[in-house]
Design goal:
Length: 519
């Protein structure tokens, strides 16, 4: 996607695999073409640079897909690094993608990108009700109108709405799996400066019903949120506020919270929730940030993350944690109990608590001694988070459980919720139907990653979410407020053959941690 400033496009690859991983990176359709084979080891970070011409520009159908394959689990993230505007986007493995999406953007220079993963893919885009049009091939598509495209594998479609634009609620459906990214060329939210925003959209089949809003650590600015609903007559309950009814699928509801009022959000039908931080946050030139928040059902039981050194000014690295109060004592950071004395309640929940803790530079692992206990971890700063997120799949099939397979074996919307002990741990009347595996830490030495240049501007804050989606790692780095989201997902088969992504001109570091096992 396009960045208002032209900079350097970089793809970063890392792994938590103990052995050496072989990675192939190609641009099958782009001219000039690119092909490289590299190897990456545990905690090591490799960087690949791309020509700026591969960015999505304006509104165009083009050949800008980048194809990444590996023979074991990797994390892939891309950075569009420009003066004062640097951002990152999440990249999901191919088998975690879907064919129905809704776009969420803010209200300035909005844009979205579609990437086809197979030949002969028919894509239909129905423009949302926000008033922004798509102008393509001499035709104007206004709100409610549909544009149909024929796309082949690795082709990309990029739409740009102009200065005062918002594509929120735009519905995209396809005959085969596609990837969808959305954001802004440069958007100002509240005080501070504008910044490039981008996040990968989750397919509708992975939408959830229960969310927790969070704040950015050490930031007193209000936090903005947007909800998009996937079905008609959806009711939204934000704890402490009046219920909201959204009559149509694709409707958007926006709200904000103060920095210290985390809140439960419940919808009676599937929805997605996007986080938009305001600029400023104590820094006059601070920039905003955007990221999708995982539903509570997708919280994970362990996360591994590594801070990234900034060569000019060091950052204060923080970790925001949401977990049930009864489980706090079993939570470990680098094998030590978390000593925070400031666990705060969450409005609308009698059980969940939230805290922010400082973490030193380096690599860290946070996990629970009971692998069936899940929680949310959000790292503020320039960091990479590895987590395991799983979203409920409406087409789920019952499968034989393997401990720690990160698959919803019993199709109840949860993953790995039973211990292999012959007891009904989750109280659903079934025994050992979806098995967790006790956490095993890697006995490796922490190394410093070579991603010191990830930030291309004067960052004030940054944020990393450790969420869950089926076998994928994603990093979402947002400019001055730099967000890194790393997700680990597994497809229903338990394997992810490859990672497919597109680099746009948004300073976005896509992070994919896909389980890549070649047949």
């Amino acid at each position: 996607m396009d960045n208002i400033h032209k900079g350097v496009l970089e793809v970063f690859i890392t792994t938590d695999h103990l052995g050496e991983v072989v990675v192939n990176i190609t641009t099958p359709l782009f001219n000039p073409g690119y092909f490289q084979t590299l190897t990456v080891r545990n905690k090591e970070v490799k960087k690949v640079n791309f020509d700026h011409g591969i960015s999505g520009l304006g509104t165009e159908l083009s050949n800008k897909g980048i194809y990444v394959q590996s023979d074991n689990e990797i994390t892939v993230y891309a950075v569009n690094k420009a003066s004062e505007t640097t951002d990152a986007f999440v990249v999901f493995p191919v088998d975690t993608l879907g064919d129905d999406y809704y776009v969420i953007t803010w209200n300035e220079r909005s844009q979205f990108m579609i990437i086809a993963t197979e030949d002969n893919t028919e894509v239909t885009i129905t423009v949302g009700r926000s008033g922004t049009s798509i102008i393509f091939n001499g035709h104007v598509y206004n709100s409610g109108m549909s544009l149909t495209l024929k796309m082949n594998q690795f082709q990309t479609f990029h739409a740009f709405g102009g200065l005062n634009s918002d594509y929120s609620g735009t519905y995209i459906t396809s005959s085969k799996a596609i990837a969808v990214f959305s954001g802004s060329q440069c958007n100002k939210i509240g005080p501070g400066a504008c910044d490039h925003l981008i996040s990968q959209m989750a397919p509708v089949e992975t939408f959830g019903n229960n969310f927790v809003t969070i704040n950015m650590a050490s930031c007193s600015s209000p936090v903005n949120f947007k909800i998009v609903v996937s079905e008609n007559d959806t009711h939204v309950n934000i704890s402490g506020r009046s219920n909201v009814s959204l009559p149509n699928s694709g409707d958007i509801y926006s709200f904000n919270t103060t920095s210290l009022t985390p809140t439960v959000v419940v919808t009676d039908k599937p929805a997605a929730l996007a986080f938009f931080s305001q600029g400023g946050c104590g820094i006059v030139s601070g920039d905003p940030a955007m990221i999708l928040l995982p539903p509570i059902q997708q919280f994970a039981a362990d996360y591994t993350f590594s801070t990234v050194e900034f060569p000019i000014d060091p950052f204060t690295n923080s970790l925001t944690i949401v977990i049930a109060e009864s489980a706090i004592s079993g939570l470990l950071l680098d094998r030590k109990n978390i000593t925070s004395e400031h666990w705060r309640p969450i409005i609308g929940s009698n059980t969940l608590r939230i805290t922010n803790i400082l973490v030193p530079e380096g690599s860290h692992t946070i996990y629970h001694i009971n692998p069936t206990v899940t929680f949310l971890a959000v790292s503020t700063g320039v960091e990479i988070i590895i987590h395991t997120d799983i979203q409920q799949d409406n087409n789920c099939s019952i499968s034989v459980p393997v401990p720690g397979d990160i698959i919803d074996n019993d199709c109840d919307g949860l993953i790995d919720e039973e211990l292999e002990d012959g007891i009904d741990n989750d109280g659903d009347g079934e025994i050992d139907e979806d098995l967790a595996k006790p956490f095993e830490e890697l006995s490796t030495t922490t190394t410093t990653s070579n991603t010191k240049e990830i930030v291309g501007d004067n960052l004030s804050t940054y944020m990393v979410i450790a969420g869950v989606l089926s076998s994928l790692f994603a990093i979402s780095c947002l400019s001055t407020a730099l967000y890194f989201l790393k997700r680990k997902l597994k497809g229903k088969s338990g394997q992810v053959e490859d990672v497919f992504s597109s680099i746009s001109s948004n300073n976005v570091p896509p992070v994919h941690n896909a389980v890549h096992k070649k047949a």
